[in-house]
């Protein structure tokens, strides 16, 4: 039986705000949540990078810091190029480092769907037999996307922003709240 994924409103908002803040860059972030049986609930998202997109010491440091205090269940990625519609090698490697006995979630954000009513999240999972990453059918993903997400207040910052300004709280992003 396939794993079911639920993205709650706050992580949906954070991932969409992260990708829309840097439309000129590929962005990668971490998904935080719980895994219970065949259900993975994504309760938060941690914006990771928009500069250091290779397997750099900065990227590794950000993942290591987040792993210390959070239950990471996967990653998200939004490519700068709209013709790329799959996970890149970096997000695959991060997911493999998070892999345990549970299935790891990964989501690709289709930037072409950001200004539409369509769900922009495309879930990916890794085959236990071949090890390849492939998209899941939409029926396995339930995403709660806040209405008017683009106009919600607050500024989002990722680990790259934190490296430039230590005042940026990239692990929490307290100014990002879901509209009522």
Automatic annotation (TrEMBL):
Write down any Gene Ontology CC term.
EMC complex
Q: What is this protein called?
A: Uncharacterized protein
Source taxonomy lineage?
Eukaryota, Fungi, Dikarya, Basidiomycota, Pucciniomycotina
